[in-house]
Amino acid sequence: MSIIKIDSSNFEEIKNSEKRVLIDFYADWCGPCKMIAPIIEEIAEENPQYVVGKVNVDDCPELAVKFGVSTIPNLVVLENGKVLNQIAGARPKAAILKMLEE
């Protein structure tokens, strides 16, 4: 499955997915965000049991505020619309997968 670009128009639908959701809050100018982008893509391709999306904080600041994002990259895991996990900063693939599985 490919990464979904999330914005205010499709956020509610994504948030309420029956699958567990991984959201990557990022910005185009952010170096650490660029470092984890290929990892997020791999996770999306290799794990169809998850919905994987990205939120550009410059384009959708309201979503960043809603999740208290003050540092990027910021990864959020949702299930049934509720936050299960949230971490700031670049992480290795194994740590992101562990976060999704907890």
Describe this structure as you would to a colleague.
The protein is of the alpha/beta class and 102 residues long. It has a single domain, classed as Glutaredoxin (3-Layer(aba) Sandwich). It has 4 helices and 5 strands, in the order E-H-E-H-E-H-E-E-H. It has helices at residues 11-15, 31-46, 61-66, 93-101; strands spanning 4-5, 20-26, 50-56, 74-79, 82-88. The protein has a 5-stranded mixed sheet with strand order 1-3-2-4-5. Strand 4 (74-79) and strand 5 form a beta hairpin. The protein is globular.
Topology of this structure?
Blueprint: E1 4-5, H1 11-15, E2 20-26, H2 31-46, E3 50-56, H3 61-66, E4 74-79, E5 82-88, H4 93-101
Parallel strand pairs: 1-3, 2-3
Antiparallel strand pairs: 2-4, 4-5
Keywords for this entry:
102 residues; alpha/beta; Glutaredoxin; five-stranded mixed β-sheet
- CATH class, please? Alpha Beta
Number of helices: 4
Rg from C-alpha positions?
Answer: 12 Å
CATH T-level fold name? Glutaredoxin
The total domain count is 1
The percentage helix is: 25-40%
Shape: globular
- Count all strands and give the number: 5
Structural class: alpha/beta
Uncertain segments: none
CATH superfamily: Glutaredoxin
The biggest sheet amounts to:
5 strands, mixed
Give the SSE order as H and E letters. Answer: EHEHEHEEH
